[in-house]
Amino acid sequence: MSTTAYTPASGRAEWTGLYDLALPLLTRERRWRVALAHAVAPEAEDTILDVGCGTGTLAVLLARTAPGARIVGLDPDPAILARARAKAAAFAASVTFLPGFARDAASAGFGFDKIVSSLVFH
Ligand SMILES: C[S@@+](CC[C@H](N)C(=O)[O-])C[C@H]1O[C@@H](n2cnc3c(N)ncnc32)[C@H](O)[C@@H]1O
Question: Which of 32, 52, 62, 93 is deepest in the core (most CB within 10 A)?
Fold first, then answer.
């Protein structure tokens, strides 16, 4: 694997648009996302990083749970970040989405109180 390669959310770039449709069919998405957000326990003063944020569903949920928190979504895939930004805008959720790999987190320009990641590490 090259140092810049990544696997797109749905496995293939042309399937990216299916990701948000497939996930609730393949997993109990609502249940585990809410449980994960509960575990993160976002608070207004937190800066929270979502590594491999994908379409931003968790980041948006965190932002809506704690509106004062700074939520940062990091993902190397520009196509999925476009979807994440559109989702955050649709929900009027304040999330900063940055392009980059997990290894870039330290140079994201923020210090993080909490770091979360879902469906990224295998
Ligand atoms: C299966 S999706 C999960 C997306 C989101 N976390 C979720 O819960 O729906 C995996 C995501 O990890 C991203 N990714 C792949 N390699 C990565 C890496 N080295 N660092 C950060 N993100 C990565 C992909 O671009 C993709 O958006």
Answer: 62
Cα(25) to ligand 1 centroid in Å equals 19
15, two tokens: 């399937």
Q: Which atom of ligand 1 is nearest to the CA of 52?
A: 22
Nearest CA to ligand 1 atom 8: 118
Amino acid letter, residue 20: D
Distance 45 CA to ligand 1 centre (A): 26
Range of the domain at 64: 13-117
Residue 3 lies in a domain: no
Helix, strand and coil percent figures for the chain, each rounded to 5: 45, 15, 40
Domain count of the fold of the chain: 1
The atom of ligand 1 lying closest to the CA of 10 is 1
d(CA 18, CA 47): 30
